[in-house]
Specification:
640 residues, alpha/beta, nine-stranded mixed sheet, six-stranded parallel sheet, globular
Length: 640
């Protein structure tokens, strides 16, 4: 988009802002609806405007969002009308005014004074005030509150009229868990934790039939909020099984004939997050390539094949597999997507991740193949009754009952990767007396406890310090991320690198003294990159694989006692020790050679073991039982 086009759009926004205030003043529902239909999903939508508007133009966009908020209040939530039904009561295909129903998110984006910050109130009883006044009270809650306010989710749901509960669930998943978008304070995290606990307690036993299609609102951002919990499995299982799966009719499995067909070893995968630069692709593709052939079915939901070929890694484009490309998934196209996958009558369907994208969240909640499988691409557990197996690593897993799926473990980490790039030629560690600390944690892995630990480490380290962060954040979040980081960490030591090339990351690590792994969402590719250039790490070991991969690598290298911790106090003390002891760091620099790291963790035999697991699954179909260890050339056995 040219600067001239942007200027024209913003000029239109200014004019439309004035018109919207007039629409609100006259409570004209017809005009409000007409304007909404013209702007939703287009260049005048809030989502587009925050992308194109420069910092100096943000006030224009904020005024526009607040004008729409005025329309919501004066038109859709006017007490003398019943227009609230169009805003708060979904139809078969979902909410008619989705963007307006998320207006609190956009108010939160701009820290608008129209956003409420007091504790979320409980609406007056419908029996006392009537449905209209009751609905207006609920509407004001879901269009003016976010996680800055404390929420008693259970009390709010129990007080709400049944026909309004879907609007509260919508608001909870699409606003409360994701706004403020950079909510890295202990108070906001506590608000979300309590609300998610209530959410699970209320909905985990429901079958979801009364919940309308939520395909457009169970966002990846809500799932990311869950991954900052110590144990997100209950929340994810509740959303997938009882809300997503239960909100759309499912066909009985016997109608598909999958069980009656002889085993043929026909494999396929839902290829999401599958471009070459994605972390999911880098750690899962070496495994899936072991079962890839010209007959392998790859499902891509994002448009026609030419667009798929432009986005997918070359090894997975249409000339190397049987690629089946379909439009982006929506409530309207879900049935067609299900039918498309089922028509291939697969023995094993693998999901490269479940949770990052709409297609994976929705398709994983349905029976599409004889056996359905996932692994370390993203989820802790899918929560779906139709996901049969979870393939993990023997070095990471134990018999702790983590998964709803049956666990299969293969030797090693359960993932694999190619050797990372070499540092730039001639690059050496500095000898200038500056202590250099690095984290490659993306912005959505940041949280208040970790920032607090980092701040304590940096403030207690004597001498000159540089802290290099690579948060990989969208442009429109960078200002807020910088403010949050500077509130928690000494501003004079911060070096923030956005959208840095991978080579810069490698070079920075090669010159660094210490790498701080993130928690509760830790690293894998980034940790291998740090270790491969001799940079020691401090890693916090938890229960779930994404909290254990780095620790498992360090343990395999025989360094667990020095570098692996189990609480934040140990994390801080270990980092302080390493910062103060140059000789200990130098010993790690010498011991962590590139050859040693590649031999241990890159281009391993994991692909052969993964193929053996696929063969076993194809032969046995869905089964229940204890975790199984499957290794190429060996008889399967129970994990002990």
């Amino acid at each position: 988009m040219t600067q001239g086009q942007q200027a024209e759009i913003l000029s239109t926004v200014v004019r439309l802002t004035g018109i919207l205030h007039k629409v609100a003043a006259t409570a004209d529902l017809r005009l409000a609806t007409e304007f909404y239909r013209k702007v939703t999903g287009g260049p005048l939508s809030a989502a587009n405007l925050v992308e194109i508007a420069s910092a100096s133009d943000q006030t224009i966009v904020q005024n526009y969002v607040e004008a729409w908020s005025h329309v919501v209040e004066q038109v859709f939530l006017a007490a003398e009308t019943d227009a609230w039904r169009e805003l708060l009561v979904p139809q078969e295909s979902g909410f008619q005014f989705v963007e307006l129903s998320m207006i609190a998110f956009w108010l939160g984006w701009f820290d608008s004074p129209r956003l409420s910050v007091t504790d979320v109130p409980i609406p007056p009883p419908m029996e006392e005030v009537g449905i209209t006044a009751h609905a207006v009270a609920v509407g004001k809650i879901v269009t003016t509150y976010d996680a800055r306010a404390a929420l008693n989710y259970r009390a709010l749901m129990e007080a709400a009229a049944p026909e309004l509960q879907a609007a509260i669930i919508f608001w909870f998943l699409s606003v409360y868990l994701v706004s403020p978008r950079i909510g890295l304070t202990a108070q906001i995290e506590a608000h979300r934790q309590r609300a998610m606990d209530d959410f699970v307690a209320m909905h985990q036993t429901e079958q979801g039939a009364k919940i309308p299609p939520l395909i457009n609102i169970t966002t990846a951002a809500a799932f990311r909020s869950a991954y900052l919990m110590d144990d997100p499995s209950g929340f994810i299982a509740t959303v997938v099984d009882h809300l997503i799966a239960g909100s759309h009719p499912r066909v009985a499995p016997k109608a598909w004939g999958i069980e009656r067909r002889a085993v043929e070893g026909r494999y396929g995968a839902v290829l999401s997050a599958w471009s070459a630069h994605k972390a999911v692709y880098r750690c899962i593709s070496p495994l899936l390539e072991s079962v890839r052939s010209q007959d392998f079915r790859g499902f891509w939901f994002g448009g026609p094949k030419d667009r798929a070929n432009a986005e997918l890694a070359p090894e997975w484009q249409n000339d190397s597999i049987r690629l089946i490309a379909k439009p982006a998934l929506s409530a309207a196209t879900l049935r067609d997507a299900i039918s498309t996958v089922r028509a291939e009558r697969l023995d094993v369907l693998y999901f490269t991740e479940v949770g990052l994208s709409v297609p994976t969240r929705w398709l994983a909640a349905h029976r599409l193949a004889k056996s359905q499988v996932t692994g370390y691409g993203h989820p802790v557990t899918t929560g779906s009754p139709f996901m049969d197996y979870y393939i993990g690593g023997l070095d990471i897993e134990d018999r702790d009952e983590k998964y709803r799926e049956r666990l299969i473990v293969i030797p090693g980490l359960g993932v694999d990767t190619a050797a990372p790039p070499l540092p730039s030629e001639g690059l050496q560690r500095f000898t200038d007396g500056v202590l250099r600390i690095v984290s490659l944690a993306s912005f959505d892995k940041l949280n208040s406890k970790m920032l607090g630990a980092w701040g304590e480490i940096l403030r207690s380290t004597p001498g000159r310090v540089e802290f290099h962060l690579f948060p990989s954040a969208p442009v429109n979040l960078r200002r807020d991320i910088k403010l949050v980081l500077e509130q928690n960490l000494p501003a004079d030591v911060l070096h923030i690198h956005y959208d840095a090339e991978r080579q810069l990351c490698i070079d920075t690590l090669a010159q660094a003294d210490l790498y701080l792994d993130s928690y509760p969402f830790g690293g894998y590719n980034t940790v291998i990159e740090a270790l491969s250039v001799g940079c020691p790490i401090v890693t916090y070991k938890g229960r779930w694989p994404y909290q254990r991969v780095a620790a498992s690598m360090v343990e395999k290298l025989g360094l667990a006692n020095a570098l692996v911790v189990s609480n934040w106090s140990e994390y801080v003390q270990t980092a302080k020790r390493l910062c103060a002891d140059a000789e200990e760091r130098r010993a790690y620099h010498q011991a962590l050679t590139r050859t040693r790291i590649i031999d241990h963790f890159c281009n391993t035999d994991a692909g052969a073991h993964f193929a053996a697991a696929f063969e076993w699954i194809s032969k046995n179909g869905p089964t229940k039982g204890p975790p199984m260890v499957i290794a190429a050339g060996e008889a399967p056995k129970a994990l002990v």
